[in-house]
Amino acid sequence: xxxxxxxxxxxxxxxxxxxxxxxxxxxxxxxxxxxxxxxxxxxxxxxxxxxxxxxxxxxxxxxxxxxxxxxxxxxxxxxxxxxxxxxxxxxxxxxxxxxxxxxxxxxxxxxxxxxxxxxxxxxxxxxxxxxxxxxxxxxxxxx
Length: 143
What we know:
The protein is 32% helix and 20% strand. By secondary structure, the protein is of the alpha/beta class. The chain has a single domain, classed as Rossmann fold, CATH 3.40.50.12280. The strands form two sheets. Strands 2-1-3-5-7 form a five-stranded parallel beta sheet. A two-stranded antiparallel ribbon has the order 4-6. Helix 2 links the parallel strand 1 and strand 2. The protein is globular, with a radius of gyration of 14 Å.
């Protein structure tokens, strides 16, 4: 199914944002993608309000125990082909919350991850770069 990803998406990505327990720093930066300063819609990226319409899931924060089943459910609701971008250090390793009893772990232990975007918080430019890396990955998969 992933081999036909580039043709299915047509270089237009629909993105769903999900906070799994972050401090909201990365969320604010990801929401800024839709503002006139960054305007990701000119690049063919649309932020959608439902995972059922999304091609890409951008996840921020470490996965708390209460969010673990919800993250799996959101991921399963996405149609194939589906891709995941982790925004922020907390989602990659737990960040400053790494040893908390309330965490189920970093995101890659819960669902498969395609692109990592480091930072605390991640800058909108870095998230745009992560989206371009995902597009490059899709082009390589196609050829």
